[in-house]
Amino acid sequence: FCTPCLQECLKPKKPVCGVCRSTLSPGSRALDLEKQIEMTETTCNGCNKKMYLSKMRNHAASCSKYQNYIMEGVKAVTKEPLHNTRNFPNRFTFPCPYCSERNFDQEGLVEHCKTLHSMDAKQVVCPICASMPWGDPNYRSANFMEHLQRRHRFSYDTFVVCDYDADEDDMMAQVLMRSLRDK
């Protein structure tokens, strides 16, 4: 996570998991995960030097070959877009349906509405759902705040590569099947 996102999750009022937004108990550390990071070896994609995962971030910041490797990847991605973006709806930023403030990511929209519009009972169209192929751009949610809490606590994109042309129920079934296989 980047620092601002991580700090948002660790606010003293409500420390939450950066992925599922479940409440964190204070002072609990994933010691087993820390140990695994300390003991797992990897190789730098730039200079091929072997090191433990715990040292990789510091190494990557100072390894010029790794920086070149990253820049080559960026150049490869930005040279030619794979798709004509004009044919695809924006599924990354959304306007607030109450006040029309713009450019919220999904989590930002949820937080904005919880903070500023939690008492607004006006029926509105969910801009996140409306941008999806299965979404109805005319459906007004009877309780938008509850809809946000239940439906948009996290983004599918965080966990899977989304196929927006697939049926939502089929995609959810695939996610559940993958999670069972990964156990």
Distance between the termini: 24 Å
Major β-sheet profile: 2 strands, antiparallel
Give the structural class: mainly alpha
Radius of gyration: 20 Å
Uncertain stretches of 5 or more adjacent residues: none
Query: What order do the helices and strands follow?
Result: HHEEHHHEHEHHH
Helix content: 40-55%
Number of helices: 9
Percentage of residues in strands: 5-15%
Give average pLDDT, whole number: 78
Shape: globular
Total strand segments: 4
Strand line-up across the major sheet: 1-2
Pathway: Protein modification; protein ubiquitination
GO molecular function, one term: ubiquitin protein ligase activity
Catalytic activity: S-ubiquitinyl-[E2 ubiquitin-conjugating enzyme]-L-cysteine + [acceptor protein]-L-lysine = [E2 ubiquitin-conjugating enzyme]-L-cysteine + N(6)-ubiquitinyl-[acceptor protein]-L-lysine
Enzyme class: transferase
